[in-house]
């Protein structure tokens, strides 16, 4: 399941996701209505890249399987090499 996969790769995601990918993921999650403007803004005010990554993945995990599937799809689209490195396919 997507939820279990994301939980499993969370440490590696937090450690290795880049700032540009974080920005694109947030925009994509907003566009797909997984997050709202307030949630996006709450992540953007976080200074540390790793803390932003933690906030995004934890927020999506709380929203359930559809949100997790959307995050996986966006990550595959925006950073296919990182996606395959995470073994999420």
From TrEMBL:
Gene3D superfamilies from the UniProt entry: Death Domain, Fas
Pfam families linked to this entry: CARD
Domain of life: Eukaryota
InterPro entries with a match to the protein in the record: CARD (IPR001315), DEATH-like_dom_sf (IPR011029)
Domain called CARD: residue spans: 1-89
GO biological process: regulation of apoptotic process
Name this protein carries in UniProt: CARD domain-containing protein
Organism of this sequence: Oncorhynchus tshawytscha (Chinook salmon)
Taxon lineage: Eukaryota, Metazoa, Chordata, Craniata, Vertebrata
